[in-house]
Design a protein that fits this description.
single chain; mainly alpha; 64% helix; elongated
Length: 59
């Protein structure tokens, strides 16, 4: 058995992660991911509009 005070190595971490089963995303998690992406795209569009409206390039 491993010594209790020894930090885990990369190999120990990889073995432990390999044993964990993948869990599907919950509907709320999917909604949060989609909402975050949509909000990010909308805010980028707003930033682009503000920059082109109030800070035009050139004469």
């Amino acid at each position: 058995m491993d010594a209790p005070n020894r930090p885990p190595t990369d190999a120990d971490t990889a073995r432990e992660l390999a044993r964990v089963e993948a869990e599907p995303l919950l509907p709320a998690e999917k909604w949060l991911i989609g909402g975050s992406l949509a909000l990010g795209v909308a805010l980028l569009g707003l930033l682009l509009w503000v920059s082109r409206t109030y800070f035009p390039i050139g004469p």
